[in-house]
Amino acid sequence: MKLALVAIHIEPSPRALPLGPAMLASVLRGAFGASIETRVVDAFVAEPAAACAARILAGDPDLVGFSMYVWNRGQTLAIAALLKAARPGIILFAGGAEATADAAGVLADPAMDFVLPGEGEELIVEAMRRLLQGDPPGTLAGWARPRPVKDLTDLPSPYLDGTLRPGDYGGALWELSRGCPFTCDFCFEARGTAGTRRIPLARVEAELELFAAQGIREVFVLDPTFNYHKVQAKQVLRLIADRAPGTHFFFEVRSEFLDREMAGLFAAIHCTLQIGLQSAHDDVLRNISRSFDPEDFEAKILLLHQAGVPYGFDLIYGLPGDTLEGFRESVDFAMGLVPNHLDVFRLSVLPGTRLAETAAGLQLRHEAHHPYRVLGSPTFSATDLEQAGRIARGCDALYNQGRAVPWFGMLLEPLDLRPAEVFEAFGTWLETHPEGTPIETRRGFFRSLFEARGDRLLGELAVDVIACFGHADEAMEASGGDRSSASGPIAFRHDPRVLMTEIEAGATGLEELAFSVPASPCAVEFSVVEGELVLRVV
């Protein structure tokens, strides 16, 4: 029997690695040997469904299983329809978060034969055994129920058994535990399970050594709260420092479990932390079974800041009980802690979550189909959601993509504007000024802000600061460590070499720079030589 397990990724990246299907393939190889020939297939949401279907059919499968999530449900069902049309006898099934949360909705599609909800390792072994015994596929639809794997000790590692080679992808997804100790209403992670179960440390150590041996650049840790068990988290961080010091790790953590020792352990490795703030208002968060202590949050983030650990925050707009102004305040609170990035999302009322069960009582209107976005509430109108979306777009384009950490606060101080105001204005600016390169768009926006205040000279200094950091980032990114020059000379009113020197010496204010860096029009070429940035006046 031939089985294809399909992973449909958002886009090509080191994160686009089919860990879930590979884990199932490993289990099936151990259970059935050569009786089931399993193949893992990668696909992408932007690919034509026909091309994906053709690639799947090229292996002549008898069965096809899909990992279904919110972002790929439509693509999955489109491919499934093509597979059934081309080969009516083929057996199709789905697993993953979306199929688990809305099993009935997925089974309503005529192409789908059954769903394997929840954790799939034990379920897929039993499902394949039944099919090999001759059970009709339709009987599996009524049999399969979520069944968490209680003991993770005996689960094979698709990395260690060769099913999945992270070196082929440039990155790895790394599972250290399953389950979540929290019950946030908007999240599906903890539904149907209680507590957490951990991968044995011996396997963790062996996988780390494999990542290092294959030269993996990035590892994305899948645990929703990596640092919940503080002792184990610190143990893993010490292992990383010892076994994979050259690899960059991405963690999701909760601020309340941070301490000074843990901050130091994070600082000793290459890593980035993502912290789910969601809102800076405790009364809003209590509506979704969370709580918030701003003083404790600030104190814990200060530990990371002092240790030099890169961190970012998540915010959600449209939460029950929140308002547009309340969301703006959350943005300002988050930005006051100087994150490396701020990811802002519109609330989605996902099937299977407690929020989906309570949405009617909260008067949350939301889309009935993926991506299930909230459409309005008594405190957050559709118009307010649209405006919040502008803030989110402005934040991403200006702060995240613009890598604005070194200069954002410097420019805001003389403008006397809140971060949320600037992001909102930039989101609007993008709607009417789509032309130009990203750097020039940001320069034009800030030039307009300073000119509106009648301070053109300070504005010219501001846009030179943006250009200086922007072109430096572009040159470093394009170089790959080799010599690489910018596309051509860049015009400046202030010598960027002097700007860089003053900022590196500790200058933090734009007005301070205005006194120490006189106007000196020049054209500068940005180069990278042996990994070092070189600025040359031409």
From TrEMBL:
* Keywords, ordered alphabetically: Iron, Iron-sulfur, Metal-binding, S-adenosyl-L-methionine
Query: Which residues belong to any copy of the Radical SAM core domain?
Result: 166-396
* Cofactor(s) required, per the database record: [4Fe-4S] cluster
Q: Name one GO cellular component term.
A: cytosol
Task: Give the source's domain of life in one word.
Answer: Bacteria
Q: Which Gene3D superfamilies match?
A: Cobalamin-binding domain, tm_1862 like domain
All copies of the B12-binding domain together span 1-138
PROSITE patterns to which the protein is assigned, alphabetical: B12_BINDING (PS51332), RADICAL_SAM (PS51918)
Q: Which GO terms describe its molecular function?
A: 4 iron, 4 sulfur cluster binding; catalytic activity; cobalamin binding; metal ion binding
Q: Does the keyword Repeat apply?
A: no
Q: What is this protein called?
A: Radical SAM protein
Q: What is the lineage of its organism?
A: Bacteria, Pseudomonadati, Acidobacteriota, Holophagae, Holophagales
